[in-house]
Amino acid sequence: MSTRKSAVPVRVVPCLDVCGGRVVKGVRFAGLVDAGDPVELARRYEAAGADELVLLDVSATLEERATSRACVAAVRAVLGVPLTVGGGVRDLDSAGVLLAAGADKVAVNSAAVERPELVRELAQAFGSQAVVLAVDVVRAADGGYRVAVRSATRALELDALTWIERGAALGAGEVLLTSVDRDGTGAGFDLDLLAAVRARVAVPIVASGGARGPADLVLAARAGASGLLAAGMFHRGEVEIADCKRALASAGEAVRP
């Protein structure tokens, strides 16, 4: 039985991790390989039935710069579905640039950990619906969950569940929850992590990290995810979005046509 708190259809969300103007994909945020042109992939995924798209500039924070406005604008030009953009969002100005370029939502990660009040400021300026708390999570030796920042190159002692609960209270309208340990492995989503976060917050959760096929998306939806993010399996053409929606519908989950 699904534990999601809403009858709103679950969303299938392809992700474009961008570096140097190209889409890349790796395993646990490392070993990145070229996966294509962001504009062409955005066009393809919308035509295939994607409900939303996430674009993350994976090197922006490490390079201490903002996400490319030109890249966001180019993707928006071919995209009609909602677009979340993250990478290098550090203040109201950098978020505003991305929203003006065509993002519907901005994802904030490392900068929010460094200064949590940023989440409240973004929500007050742009509305909670436009603010996504992106959290990269690693499993600690004691079995708990810790927050990782700077493209998962630095793990903190910060408890992930506590941080997510605080971020939602500060005004984040959605959580983009990535299991670093599962990312790119095809081992399936971390369902325990997902269920633990679902028990803490009422805002929508987009599950990320580990999807190999439609069955993984079904399990994540049952564990409480409102959005189901995948990258590699779509980039490599192993799975079609329509296959995922059929599997979700067959499992009793509401999906958009």
Can you tag this structure with a few keywords?
257 residues, alpha/beta, TIM Barrel, 10 helices
Summarize the structure.
The protein is of the alpha/beta class.
CATH architecture: Alpha-Beta Barrel
* CATH-defined topology: TIM Barrel
- Taking Cα atoms only, what radius of gyration do you get, to the nearest Å? 16 Å
Listing every helix as H and every strand as E from the N terminus to the C terminus, the arrangement reads EEEHEHEHEHHEEEHEHEHEHH
CATH class: Alpha Beta
Number of strands: 12
Quickly give the structural class: alpha/beta
Number of helices: 10
Strand content: 25-35%
Reading side by side through the largest sheet, how are the strands ordered? Answer: 1-4-5-6-7-10-11-12
* Number of domain units: 1
Mean pLDDT rating: 93
CATH superfamily: Aldolase class I
Q: Segments where pLDDT lies below 50 for 5+ residues?
A: 1-5
Distance between the termini: 22 Å
Outline: globular
Helix content: 25-40%
